[in-house]
Structure formats: C-alpha cells, structure tokens
Amino acid sequence: MHTLYGFPPEAEAGRRVHPLVELRIDRSAFEELERRLENNGPWDNWTLYRLAWEAEQATRIGDFHELQSLRMLPRFTPLPHQTETAKRVLHEMHGRAILADEVGLGKTIEAGLVLKEYIVRGLVRTALVLVPSSLVLQWVRELNDKFGIPAIAQKKTHHWNSDVVVASIDTAKREPHRSLLLDREYDMLIIDEAHKLKNKRTGNYKFACELRKKYCLLLTATPVQNDMSELYNLITVLKPGQLGGESEFSATFVADRRVPKNREMLQEALGRVMIRNRREGSDIRHPRRIVTTVPLTLSPDEQALYDGVTEFVRSSAREAGIATAGALALVTLQREVCSSRDAVFLTLFNLFKKAEEGSLMHERIRHLVELIKAVKANTKAEKTLELIRGMNDKVVVFTEYRATQDYLMRFFAEHGLASVPYRGGMNRGKKDWMMELFRRRAQVLVATEAGGEGINLQFCHHIINFDLPWNPMRIEQRIGRVYRLGQTEDVHIYNLCTLGTIEEHIVRLLHEKINMFEMVIGELEDIIHTLEREETLERRLARLFLEAEGEGDLRRGIDRLGDVIIGLSRQRRQET
Amino acid sequence: MNGGEVARFVVSFLEQTGCRIIERSPAHVVVKLSTEADRALTNRPFYWSFVDRTGTEPETMTFAWYFEPPGGAAQAGAAEAAPEALAAAAGNAVAPVAVAETSASAAPGAAATALSAVAGTTALPAASPAPAAGPLPSAFSLPGVRVISEHLHFGSARLHQLFDYVRQRGRNVFLFAEPPRGACAADPFSHAYTAWLGVNFKISSECDMKREDLYSWGISLATGVIDEKFGERLQASKMTTRLSPEIRLLKSTLTPRKAMARLEAHLERKLRRGDFTWAVEAEARRQEERERVTSYYRPLIERADSEEQKRALQERLARREAEIDWQYRPRMTVSVTSCGIFHFPGID
C-alpha cells in the first residue's frame, strides 16, 4: 500500500522530523554513484548535470498556494471566475468539490485547471473522468489541447492502465470494467453531469461511492437545491456527513421534499463543498441576441400544397384516432411542408410505399404529389438568399430536414453561393473538415444538427432558423453553438415564419409568448425538464394541433401552454 | 522559465547531445537530431529497432523549435530569416532521406514496407504535444524533408521530455576543478586537491497540498566540513573530467557513504528546525474529516439490520478513513536528485 501515502516506492521507511511528520529518504541517485565509483564510471556529462539541476529549479513547487499550472499554459488564459474557482477548490475545499456553474461558464475548464494543478504539483498521477458517452471525446480533446494533459478515451480494457482515462460512466460501472476500477485507487475522480448520481438506489450512485479516490470533482449544471434528497445524496458521494446524518439533515434543513428550511445555514454549509457561478454575477460581457421574425406569405401554389397536406393530416388522424402515436407523427408532414416540398415529398413517398395498392391513402398521396409538382419556387429559400446577401458575413442556416438541406445547398449553388453541409451522421473527421471549410472558404453553413460535441462557431454571428424544431432544447443548442462563452459580438437570429401555417403558431409561442430566444442559456433546460415530466412538449403541441377545433381554439390552447411555461420560469427565478 | 531561458536550455542540450543546429536566432532553432537525441525524444522504438536489426543508416528527425508564442514579434523575424537557411537545410537533409529510401527498397519485403511506413509517417505519436494554436511558420516544409514545427515553452510536453532526459543522463559526475591560472610550483597547495561529495536534494512537504525546497550541498571527504553554498561554488568553477599530471590528490578520510550520512543528519537537523504550521493545519483538517465520516457512519452501523450489513458499513467507513489519511496526512520526502565527486584545490 505504499502508494496510498504518496511516497515513492524507492523511499526508505522513515523517521520523524516533527511529531506529526514522517520523513522518507530516496537516495537511489547516491547508490548509483557508489556503484559507479566501484566500477570507475561511466560518468555523466557535466553540462547535463547542470541542466538537470536547472530543470529541478524550474519545476520546483515553491509555494503551497500559488497556482503553478498557469505559467505552464501560456496559450491559455482562463477567465477570472475560473481561476478563482480553481483556487477555492484547492485551498478551501482541499480537492473535493461540486462545481455547479450555470451552463456555459466553463465547468470543464475549471475541472481541467484543478486537475492540471494537482498533476503539476505531483499530487495526482492517475485520474479517472466519468462522463456521458457523448462527451467522452470532447473531454479528451479539451484536456489534451487546452491543458496538455495526455488523457485518453477508454475504448479497450487495457486503456484502464493509462494514467488519465476518460470513460463513459455506463461502461465503467459494468463488468468486467467495474471490478478492475474498484480494485485500484485514483488520485482524482471527476464525474461530469453528476446530477445523474442523485438517486442513491442507482448503479451510478453506488459505483461512484465505492470508487477509491483522493480528490473528487462532481460537475453539474442542474441546480440540485431543487430536490433536497438529491442534494444530500450528491454530497454524500463527495463527503459523507458534510450535512450531518440523514435524519439530522432532514430535521435541520428539509421543510418539504422541494422546500429547504434554514436557507442561510444551508447555503453556508453548501458553500463549503459547492461552487456555483452565475452568468449574472460573472464578469463576462454579454453580447446581445437580436432576434428577428421574418414573416412570409406563401405563394398560391405553396398555400394550396399546405392546405392539401393539412387536410390530409386531419382526415388521416381522425381515421387513425387522434392522440395515437401514428396520428401525432402525421403532424410532422405539416411541419415539413413549411420547410420545403422536398422534405414533405420524402415522407409522403415513404407513406406511399407502406400503404396498400389502390387504397384511399394511395389516392390521397397521389393528389398531394400533384400539388407538390405544381410548386415552382420556395418562398423561404428566396428570402434566405436575400438575407444572406444582405448581411455579407458568415451565417449558419439551420433546418430540421436532410431533404431541405440538400435542396438549399443546390439552390444556393445555382445562385453562385457556396455553402458547406453539416449533419449528425458525419464522422468526427468530416465534421472537423466541414467546420474548417466553413471557417476559411464558405460564407454559409447549412446544418441539420446543432447538438453533438465540439462544434464551436464563435467566429459566426448570424443564425437563420429556416424552420424550427419543436423541442426547445434543440433550439437552445442551435443558439448555443454561436452564442457561447467567448463570443464577443452581438448575435443575430432570424426566424423564418410562414403566415397562416402551423409554423406561425410555433414562432409566436416560442418567441413572442415565452421569449425563449433571449432566455439565459441553461434556464430553459430546467423548465423543460419539469414540464416534460408528464409529456414531451413536442407531443403536447402535436396533440393541440390535432384536437383544436378551429383557429381560435388552437390559439387559446397554445397560449395556455405558454402560460404554464412562463409560470415555471417565474417559479424557478424565485427559487434561485 | 521565460522564452530566453528555455532557448538557452534547449541549445545547451542540443550541443551536448551532438545534434546539428541548422539555424538559430534568439527566438528559434532548426535542428537535425543526433541519433542519441532522436532515440530519446521521438518515441519511434519500432523504427530504431529496425535500424538496429538491419544496420541501416538511420535518418533522424528535423525540428523547428520556437521559443516565443506563435505570432510574437520575435518569431516574425525568425520566419523572415528562415528562407536563407533553406538551401543549406535542403542540401544537407534531402540527401540522407534519399539514401534511406534507396536502402529501404533494397531491403527484403516486409522490412522494406516497415521502413517506408516509418519513413512516411515520421509524425509524432499521440502523446506528442498538440500543435500550436496559431500557425507556426512552415518555411521548412521542403520536399523530401519533414520539418516539424513546435512551440517550446515552459509547460510544453517537449520541454518536459528534455527535462526528464537530463535528469536521467545528468545524475552522477566525477570532476576536477581546473588548476588556478598562474599556479606555480612555489605554492605546493595549489596543486593539492581534495575530494568533495556534492549532493542535490529535493525536499517535498506534502499533505493535500505540496511545496518543494532544493538544496545543493557539499561535504569535504578530507575534513567533513559541510558547505551549504556548494552549488554556488560549482556554478562559479570551471570543471574538467581530466586530472592534470601535476595535481596531487590528498587522501580522503571519509568514505562517500559516511559523508552522505553526515549530510543527511545535517539536513535532518535543519528540517527539524523548520516551520511545521502547514503540517499542524493539515492534521487538524484530517481529524475534522475523520470525525465527520465517523459521525455519518456510526449511527448507520448501530442501526444495521444484520451482521452482514454492519460489516459492510464498517468496511466502507474504514475505506473513507483511509482516503482521508491519503489526502491529508502530512509527510516529507527527501530525494537525492543527483550527486557527484568534485575535486577542488586546497583543504577546507
């Protein structure tokens, strides 16, 4: 167990230089000198001897407190709140902390700084970083590129032998990995998205508790104070007993599952293990988000197609039974027709293949295809081209549909505008390449995916939402690609909105009613999380569209939904 | 270490390891590594084992190392200066590559493939430092010679690789001070040398945090006198590996081992007189943390439903306690980083 106390194995077991302090001596270099004296050499070079001493002096940790890692990272300047956080974790929390910054303030950077500092000081050699699988590569890149920490992504069993490993927590907690990891000890354990540990009956929780670690960082953006037992469990992973025993904790701090009492005392107790930086309090200059709705009137042939599709959706849904999964899926057609005829055609074509020959369905689809053929131009695409030409700057055009993406790129090319595609299915290398092309060569990126890891579009200040996802988290991801930490300029967001369609209702709800485009990034996640405990927003909306009797009814239904969201948002602000 | 200090360190290293500097300015150096340095730095064990097995003429790698961050003013100068050296670099470096390729094609099947694979991908392996954020001048990308540009700064993996190398290869020396100029036979003591054991100590004080101190001390093997400023004396002296014929070595009374024991005892006395506030504070933290986990686990253990559950909880408590000790327990380590025997004129 010699490694347990951090002594080098060569060091001889020791004596005390103070009642509390054991001293060990590693004199292997002297023993080597004795051997060489006996054998009359060979001797090392005098200059190398002096250079070695110079290296020792340069790398000496001269101080218990001052951050040593910063002088090692000349290409990287952390923000003041990040440096401050790293210092507090090291000196006040002694390496065990919950980092709970709001989204976008750089929790990863803070964790990287703390890890780097301990590595530089020789206090950490082995570290295990457990994250959701989608974030593994992003973490590896960040640690390597920003911090020069040779972290590797765990893919094979032997990778566990590396000093710094990033792995998916779901892999790590399963055999055969589990036993391997529980058998060893880590100088540092980092768990990202740690709110997934909050339930103490889960495998994640038990696994995190059992891992042997010296220092430990838990990262979460979800304000854990909202649920008292979750909060308690998270802290127990880190420092059992920090908030007292379970019953003591309940008696002192819990009024109700969601309502703490003795707030100030709780805040103070939390302050000893948790750091939460907020956007409001941070010294980051906030560029503005300028949101413009671009209303468009469909051409008569487009309107005819839209009406035809709407009629088709309504009648098919009535036949299938409203609120069945199949009926709700049909609403997609209405959304697609607002995007491009190409998008709706593809879905209709698939429906056609599934339907029986000569059925009513066949007949209806054939009719719709006639309407599609009649559409000669795409009003939205023309407007988009006009917008792009007017802004004379880099722009990302987001669409939900592959078919629309292809169409747009063709359309732009026909008008002498080069654009670059970006989609979820591309592999990492291709994504990086596309990003590079966009940065260097093209004015326009046409993207179907905003999520995923590592896309950083800070050099771009314009977003056109060619169509809108109904999942607000996806909208937030779109904005988050451009409006993120480090963005210094105002960001312009254009929402294309075809009047008299399902799209108009969505834009009205998201922009005018709940004003989500200007919401604090991260705020929405909590609200949607609460809202969707019962049913996803997407389904709620689809149901509203199918069940509404007339325009007025639909409008009222959507307003009610908006009120619910606003209510949740107010409640959240009061809590935090 | 600032850019200038890094540059001096790197150039000294390159000179000592027999590398060929193609070009240098205060802000950069272009260098073709010696075989020794290449083996130590480029992490190509496969290539080197091939060379060793087949006796092929090795082709070492060429680097352009910049000491200022990309985009710095000094570097712009270096970039401009670079083309002048192109011809020289090309003339010197292209030829060996051609040789290597020829011999590769002459080598039998699998080996030839191996070499061309190696020669084709002289890129550094994954553990190498990430390329600099800004573009480094690529003036040296000559056909046939791959020159790898890197920003060498304090903290960069490459520089720390050099640190590790010199720590390994600069551990033990055996040296003589050059005789003082103008020394003559009239002064017999100027030619009487005594031996010193010089030792470099690194002392680390550790708890959940860490501090290090460095001492470079010497002890006379003739008299046992300890010099705490021995490091400075060495800095100021010219040393050589040769013993000139006119020098007379006086007999040592101490063996290096006895001398070492005295130095250690001296060091220990010094350490005992040190400030241990850090250790007292760390111990207080350790106690506090231990009380905290005990207060958490004790009621659980008392209320345990079964013996089995009780044991499991006790084991968990023991583990948490071990973690706390691991994290906070104050301790000190002395390591001898390097040492040597040094001969100086006179008796102290």
Question: How would you describe this structure to a colleague?
Answer:
The complex is a heterodimer of chains A (about 575) and B (about 350). Chain A has helices at about 30-40, 45-60, 80-90, 105-120, 135-145, 170, 175-185, 205-210, 230-240, 245-255, 265-270, 300-320, 325-340, 340-355, 360-375, 380-390, 400-415, 430-440, 470-480, 500-515, 525-530, 535-545, 550-575; strands at about 10-20, 20-25, 95-100, 125-130, 150-155, 165-170, 185-190, 210-220, 255, 260, 275, 290-295, 395-400, 420, 445, 460-465, 490-500. By secondary structure, chain A is α/β, with parallel strands linked by helices. In chain A, the strands form four sheets. A seven-stranded parallel β-sheet of chain A has the order 5-6-4-7-8-3-11, with helices on both faces. In chain A, strands 12-17-16-13-15-14 form a six-stranded parallel β-sheet, sandwiched between helices. In chain A, strands 1-2 form a two-stranded antiparallel sheet. Chain A is elongated, with a radius of gyration of 29 Å. Residues about 1-10 of chain A have low confidence and may be disordered. With about 350 residues, chain B is an alpha/beta fold. Chain B has ten helices and eleven strands. Chain B has helices at about 5-15, 35-40, 45-55, 75-105, 110-120, 155-170, 230-235, 255-270, 275-300, 305-330; strands at about 20-25, 30, 60-65, 145-150, 170-175, 190-205, 210-220, 225, 240, 250, 330-345. In chain B, helix 4 runs antiparallel to helix 5 (about 110-120) and helix 9 (about 275-300) runs antiparallel to helix 10. The longest helix of chain B has about 35 residues, at about 75-105. Chains A and B meet through strand 1, strand 2, helix 1, helix 2 and strand 8 of A and helix 1, helix 6, strand 5, strand 6 and strand 7 of B.
